[in-house]
């Protein structure tokens, strides 16, 4: 059965639904018996201080300065702090399971806008770069299919040679190309799924050539046609197809994969089924029903 890191601690009430959707998704997955949920515990803050500027980590832990809410979640509270610390533990445990078993999930976002000095755009600590930092002997390839580019992750690729970021996005929102930061822009109106699929294939070619040990797949749902940031051609069916292709390629190429939820800005009733679909696609590919 597909293993997914999650804890009720992931839930946090903020002015957006972004930390509430995690629990909403996990509840469906539990009811439908689609995953085995694994509580990852809470990360040791010292680990985060190796990834981010220690002062920024301290500020977030104490909630004392404006730095603590720089990512946009206001006001700071202990529930949010514990949610973020649990989610980051889930990244590391999820990566460990994926490396061992080939596939795993963390029912959380990768927080790809967070850079070394600070959080940004509802991303506190970068859980994608975290895996590379904690596994220096492994080559970590981020396949970022959020509608926004992973600018924070791109900055981290300059600090770690075992990290590559490959962003496929439809909004030109600060994702720089660089030596280990690759970007593919697919136009939200004039683009189409053929171009998107091609970009995904290209990502896998890179991942394979680079002898990637682990792919972390950001299965963003803000590309959906009804999302305020979405691409008008990106239907629910095509998003499912995207997820299916990613899982199929990773499985065929025998590259372990950890997947996370990433962005999505519709009401929970519309958004949760989209995220649940990613788990459905993973189950179809990795745990097909016999008969
Ligand atoms: Zn996004």
Automatic annotation (TrEMBL):
Gene3D superfamilies: Histone deacetylase domain. GO terms for molecular function: histone deacetylase activity. InterPro entries: His_deacetylse_dom (IPR023801), His_deacetylse_dom_sf (IPR037138), Ureohydrolase_dom_sf (IPR023696). Residues 15-267 form the Histone deacetylase domain. One of its GO terms (biological process) is epigenetic regulation of gene expression. SUPFAM superfamilies: Arginase/deacetylase. It comes from the Bacteria. This is Histone deacetylase domain-containing protein. The lineage of its organism: Bacteria, Pseudomonadati, Pseudomonadota, Gammaproteobacteria, Moraxellales.
């Amino acid at each position: 059965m597909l293993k997914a890191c999650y804890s009720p601690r992931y839930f946090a009430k903020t002015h957006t639904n972004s930390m509430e959707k995690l629990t909403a998704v996990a509840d469906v997955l539990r009811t439908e018996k689609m995953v085995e949920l694994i509580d990852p515990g809470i990360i040791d803050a010292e680990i985060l201080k190796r990834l981010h500027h220690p002062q920024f980590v301290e500020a977030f832990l104490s909630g004392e300065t404006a730095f603590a809410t720089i990512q946009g979640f206001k006001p700071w509270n202990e529930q949010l702090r514990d949610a973020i610390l649990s989610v980051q533990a889930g990244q590391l445990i999820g990566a460990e399971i994926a490396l061992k078993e080939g596939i795993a999930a963390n029912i959380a976002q990768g927080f790809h806008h967070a850079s070394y000095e600070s959080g940004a755009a509802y991303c506190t600590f970068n859980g994608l770069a975290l895996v590379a930092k904690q596994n220096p002997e492994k080559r970590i390839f981020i396949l970022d299919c959020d509608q926004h580019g992973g600018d924070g992750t791109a900055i981290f690729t300059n600090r770690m040679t075992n990290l590559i970021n490959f962003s496929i996005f439809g909004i030109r929102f600060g994702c720089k190309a660089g030596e280990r930061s690759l970007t593919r822009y697919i136009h939200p109106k004039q683009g189409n799924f053929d171009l998107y699929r091609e970009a995904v294939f290209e990502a896998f070619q890179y991942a394979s050539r680079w002898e990637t040990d682990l792919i972390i797949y950001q299965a963003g749902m803000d590309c959906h046609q009804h999302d305020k940031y979405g691409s008008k051609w990106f239907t629910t069916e095509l998003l499912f197809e995207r997820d299916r292709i990613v899982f199929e390629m990773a499985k065929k190429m025998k590259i372990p994969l950890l997947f996370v939820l990433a962005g999505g800005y519709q009401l929970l009733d519309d958004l949760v089924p989209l995220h649940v679909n990613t788990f459905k696609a993973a189950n179809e590919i990795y745990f097909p029903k016999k008969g």
